[in-house]
# Entry
Amino acid sequence: MTGERFVDIRFEGVVEYQTALAQMKELQMLRIEDRIHDTLLLLEHPEIVTVGPRARNDGITPPPTYPAFPVDRGGGLTWHGPGQIVCYPIFKWDLPGEDSVTAIISKLEDWVIRTLADLGIPARKDGRMQGVWVGDNKVCSIGLSFLRWTSRHGLTININTPAGRVENLSGCGLGEATTTCLAKLGYDVDRDYLIESLLENMMLCLSRGKIIK
# Structure
């Protein structure tokens, strides 16, 4: 445990979900074996709804007009698609304050909240569900899967998603239109600026080391 984290940033563009999943699994094993540094994947998926074990256990499925895929990360239904940033931290969580899943999720929430604050957006946590909220709406979903305290999967931030798609999806006790995007809440956010802010705040919230590009 060194007290700092060195992160390899990889900008992947638009990636099919199954392709990204295979990449995450490969990188996770490499990280467990210390053959790579912690790695952050930044990308976007074509539209798909990932269905976590909570949704499957509760018998919740997306409407038939949505493509869907089962996953092993925590949580229920998560929408992916255009106008969304996806962040997959393939991290070995072994720094101080990273001794539980709850603590790690809280760190990720703080990271997004601080990033949105830099853009003038008052974001917060909410006791109903992990993730990040603006007012009464959820704009960031978080779900991880761990192997030997090394994570895959991650978080999404909805910037300017197609009308009605994420809003029409309900699950895990949240009603329709609870999850939305920043544009629908009146925030005109530049994607590149948001990514820049994410990387700057990662140094403060997650790494205390340096970014490797």
In short: The chain has a mean pLDDT of 90. The domain at 6-212 is CATH 3.30.930.10 (BirA Bifunctional Protein; domain 2). The chain has one domain: 6-212. Helices lie at 17-32, 53-57, 101-118, 191-207.
